[in-house]
Amino acid sequence: MNFQVTVLKVLVSYPGGFAPMDDIKRDMAILATSGRDWSDRTKRLAARVPELDIFSQGLVDRESGGWKITDKGRAVLEFMEARTLIDQPLVVVPAETVYATTVPPLPPLAERAKRRRERRERRREGRERARSTAS
C-alpha cells in the first residue's frame, strides 16, 4: 500500500477535504487490511507520479488536529486516476454483436410449455414418492 496515495484518497472523501487525525488513522487501517486490491491500486496510481511527496509539494496541509487536501492535491489525484482510463484501450463493439452472442434465442412457445409441464410432473412425482416413503 502506498501511504501517500492513500492519504490523498482518504482526504478527498471527506467534506471540504479535511479529516481529523483519528479519522485518517482509522480509515488508513481499514484500507491497509482490506486486501491486495487496494495495495495494487495504490501502487499503480503512485507509479504515475513517481516523485510524489504530499507535504513538500503542497498537496496536503497540516491544520490543527488533522490534515486537509489542497486544490493542487485534488488535481494530482485526478491526474493519477485519469491516466488509468487513457492507458486502457477503448474497444467499441456494435450492440447487435453483443446481443447476438450473449443472449440465446428463446425456444418456441409450445416447447417451453412442454418443458414446464414436464417439470411440474417431476415435482409432483417427487412429492408423492416422499409421502409414500414417509408413511
Automatic annotation (TrEMBL):
Residues 123-135 have a biased composition (Basic and acidic residues). It comes from the Bacteria. It comes from Bradyrhizobium rifense. Residues 113-122 have a biased composition (Basic residues). Residues 103-135 are annotated as: Disordered. This is Uncharacterized protein.
